[in-house]
Structures are given as C-alpha cells and as structure tokens.
C-alpha cells in the first residue's frame, strides 16, 4: 500500500496517531541538529574557528542522546501497539533513519576534530576548495533527504539517491588531486592526510543521506532499493500513484 493514501489518519486510537507523529517530530528535530553539525564542522575548518569546532564535538553527545530517546520510543510503540503495514514501516524507517543521523553526527565530529588540528598547526588551505564544494553538496543532500522523509516525497528522495553518485565522483577527483600534490611536496603529507580524512567523512555523510532517501522509498512504497544501481530504478513506477 502506498503510504501517501494512508497517512495514519484512520486509526481508532487518536493517541496512536499522536505517537506516530511524535516519532516523526523527534526524528526531524534530530535531523535539524545533525544538519547544523555538518554545517558548523565545515565552517569551522574553512573559517579557522576552533571554538566552533569544539562546539561540534561537544554537541555530538546530544545527537547520541536523541538517538537513544527515539529508539526507546520506537520500542514502546512496537511493544504496545504492534503496528502493521504502513505503520510498521514508519516505525522501522524512523529507527533506521535515526541510526544514520547518529552516524552523520559522528562524521561531523571527525571533521571538527581534524579542523582543530589543522587550524592550530597553522597549515595552509590546500584542499579547502574541494572541502567547500563537497560539504555544500552533502549538506543539501541531508536537507533534501529529511524534507523527503517529512513530506513522504518520493521524487525528492530519488533526487538524493541520484546525487550520491555525483558526490562520489567529486570525492574521487579531489583525492586524485591531493595525492598528486603530496607526491610533489613531501612536507604537505601530514596536513593533506587530515584534509583527506575530512573529505572521506563528507563522502560518508553523502552515503548516509542516500540511506535516508532510500528509507523514504521503503516507507512510502514498501520497496527496498538498497544495493540497487540508481540507473536501474524506474522513477515513473516509483513516483506514480497506486
């Protein structure tokens, strides 16, 4: 069943409806914090702001706490309500999405820690152009994935899935460029390796945003598109109303 034609409004229990909406609300709040973590971590590096980077590291505890609360609430819903069909998919999608958001928070913390090291060592800005490009791209992916989840928007979710491949290509190009620079100047190896770890974290954030988008397809259509090549997805069949 397409969840867009069964938006959890037909339950006898109004409280159950409220519990399901509360799960979505908690997830969106966690998503908002995680999106800010990614933005602040990148800004801390590009602006040389160690204080902001330290805030990102400290706020990772809040992200972890939010995941725990969401998991606990999902467990209570499963135990009390024993949901089926689209309601069960919603609870499962929330659990999975919260896990990916927590991992995005971890990657943002890694970026912030590397940023602190680079700024304090007063290294140059080699690789920062690539960091800016990819960070902007993955932040957009995270925001679009969260929006697609909130709106049950298949088209926007698929847009995120398709963009993940572009981020992967940008990441590979950046790594080749930095590898070339390291071979030309051995003194740059240490700072360039830190930038590479940052780029790797950003690429992983894109992967997790892609996962969030895939959960939207699962939630709305009941289809598991994980491990499916984006080129093999039939967008018309996924987005049409059943």
Q: What does this molecule look like?
A:
There is one protein chain. The chain has 242 residues and is an all-alpha fold. It has helices at 14-47, 50-81, 85-120, 128-151, 154-184, 189-221, 235-239. The mean pLDDT is 89.
| Helix segment tally | 7
Largest sheet, strands/sense/barrel: none
Residue share in helix: over 70%
Shape verdict = globular
Compressed to H and E, one letter per element, the order equals HHHHHHH
Radius of gyration: 20 Å
What would you call the quaternary organization?
Answer: single chain
Q: Hey, roughly how much beta strand do the residues contain?
A: under 5%
Distance between the termini: 8 Å
Give the tally of β-strands.
Answer: 0
Mean of residue pLDDT values: 89
The parts where pLDDT drops under 50 for at least 5 residues are none
Give the class from helix and strand content and strand pairing.
mainly alpha
Q: What secondary-structure arrangement, pairings included, does this model have?
A:
Layout: H1 14-47, H2 50-81, H3 85-120, H4 128-151, H5 154-184, H6 189-221, H7 235-239
Helix pairs in contact: 1-2, 1-3, 1-4, 2-3, 3-6, 4-5, 4-6, 5-6
Keywords, separated by commas or semicolons:
mainly alpha; 0% strand; 7 helices
Task: Summarize this structure briefly.
The chain is built from seven helices and no strands. It is mainly alpha-helical.
